[in-house]
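Subject: sequence -> structure tokens, single chain

Hey, anyone have a minute? Need the predicted structure for the following. Not urgent.
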Amino acid sequence: MKYNKIYICGHPKSGVRYVSKLIHENFFTENKEFYKDADEIQIDNDTLYVYVERRFRNLIKSFYEIRHIYGISEDMNFEDFYKTRYSQLCYENNNCDCRHITMAPRNYWEHHVNSWIKICKVNTNIIMISYDKILRNVDAVMKKIGSYL
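Reply:
Had a minute. Here:
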């Protein structure tokens, strides 16, 4: 393996845990944890970073559909959910990955994805994959990831 560590990261609800499982099942026999909160990452050359990007429309619908898991009111309509800051949505529940985010979902998603696009352009050990492409052709995406290992 070219890298000592692999971190799979992305915006909450982008498919990071799913991609972690795919990578583990396709490339490793030992039990490893690959997920890392994207806000905690310090880029180094010994690590392969796999950034999972998901279209905002699909991501926010996914989050909205399971909002009850995070303790978010099921009475909130989608329009209000979409406009409310993550920190206000998740302030009561410690299980919510977004409780520290002070932006509305769309703004934060744009900030998050664009910052990773920038660092991906200058670091050869960061690859971006699309969750939507995984759903269409998982074999092609796994081959792409495998070429970095």
